[in-house]
Write a structure and sequence with these properties.
326 residues; Quinone Oxidoreductase, Chain A, domain 1; seven-stranded mixed sheet; six-stranded parallel sheet; 10 helices; binds NADPH dihydro-nicotinamide-adenine-dinucleotide phosphate
Length: 326
């Protein structure tokens, strides 16, 4: 079976396509024939070795996948069931989706929502599911389209594109922050009503600025997140899920103590199963499948090495689906 395998020996990091056998697969009670995976930011870090996300070697990267059960010792899943998986350390500490077959724990799997093909589920992927977790976090704190606009940073990225599309469909006024001037039309088609140049947000700013948005979904971190917080309206919520610019947060407490702003952290990897099911259910209801198609491109395993480098330079638009099954 074809797989991407990353390895580290004598401080030399390698990633290549190789053949693995079922006997090589890690322990788990369900074996899945992987049809599609995706390229998430973390996968690009794993393929290039740019950041130590892989914590066991050799490793098959791929933090998510969708496919069909081919063997099961679990009462919950039978051969032939369509399933999907996001996170749980898959692709980091347990072999992941960049192989034609994966063996995992049944607790990590989710039955495929009937609304999606395996390909559509991976067009959404971990980035899109995280975008929905961010929307749920805003709603938990009382956000509604009546509260005011929501700003989305890293807007042409995977998390950003899906977030813009969901929020617009839900009726929010969406402000998109992007560094890609050539993609303004793309963001408008997804539903953004205003676009801000990334440069305006990415330099050190004032501790408090004009109140501009009632909510935010930030996948960028660093000064961008600090500036997002500084311009959030009284009582607003910022859902933070990413670090595309940096993992630092050079902010002050003023937005919290003078404007009652809430900073809501969002993690997709160890998110409890009921919340995952809720997020995937909401994706089925609140994401326009035509827009999903517009924001996705498909590649095979061979194409990932170059794309991973481009993604870390911020050069990828939307979602990358990986067709794993040959
Ligand atoms: P993408 O690479 O698809 O998107 C990131 C976007 O961020 C880019 O397209 C670009 O958008 C913007 N960006 C890139 N570099 C910079 C920079 N230096 N300064 C400002 N903006 C920049 O990644 P994903 O959407 O898949 O993931 C985004 C982030 O979210 C990553 O850090 C990832 O690790 C994190 N993440 C976290 C999860 C969690 O569980 N918390 C789950 C999934 C993702 P533009 O050109 O439009 O400005």
């Amino acid at each position: 079976m074809k797989a991407i395998l990353v390895d580290k020996a004598d401080d030399r990091y390698t990633a290549q396509i190789t053949d693995i056998s079922t006997a090589d697969l890690p322990a788990g009670d369900v074996t899945v024939g992987v049809e599609y995976s995706t390229l998430n930011y973390k996968d690009s870090l794993a393929i290039t070795g740019a950041s130590p996300v892989v914590r066991r070697f050799p490793m098959v990267p791929g933090i998510d996948f969708a496919g069909t059960v081919v063997d099961s010792e679990s009462e919950e899943f039978a051969v032939g069931d369509r399933v999907l998986l996001n996170g749980w350390g898959v692709g980091e500490t347990h072999w992941g989706g960049y192989a034609e077959v994966a063996r995992v724990e049944s607790d990590w799997l989710i039955p495929m929502p009937s609304a999606f093909t395996t390909q559509q589920a991976m067009a959404i992927g971990t980035a899109g599911y995280t975008a929905m977790l961010c929307v749920l976090a805003l709603e938990d704190h009382g956000a509604s389209p009546m509260s005011g606009p929501v700003v989305v940073t890293g807007a042409t990225g995977g998390v950003g594109s899906v977030a813009v599309a969901i929020l617009a469909k839900l009726g929010y006024d969406v402000i998109a922050v992007t560094g890609k001037t050539e993609e303004h039309e793309y963001l408008s088609r997804l539903g953004a009503s205003e676009i801000i140049d990334r440069a305006e947000m990415s330099e050190p700013g004032r501790p408090l600025g004009k109140e501009r948005w009632a909510g935010a979904i930030d996948s960028v971190g660093s000064h961008t997140l600090a500036n997002v917080l500084a311009s959030t309206k009284y009582g607003g919520t910022v859902a933070a899920c990413g670090l595309a610019r940096g993992m630092d947060l050079p902010a002050t407490v003023l937005p919290f103590i003078l404007r009652s702003v809430t900073l809501a952290g969002v993690d997709s990897v160890h998110c409890p199963r009921p919340r995952r099911m809720e997020a995937w259910g909401r994706l089925a209801a609140d994401l326009d499948l035509d827009l999903l198609e517009e924001m996705s491109a498909e590649v095979r395993l061979e194409g990932l090495f170059e794309l991973a480098r481009r993604q870390l330079e911020g050069g990828i638009k939307g979602r990358t689906i990986v067709k794993v099954k040959s």
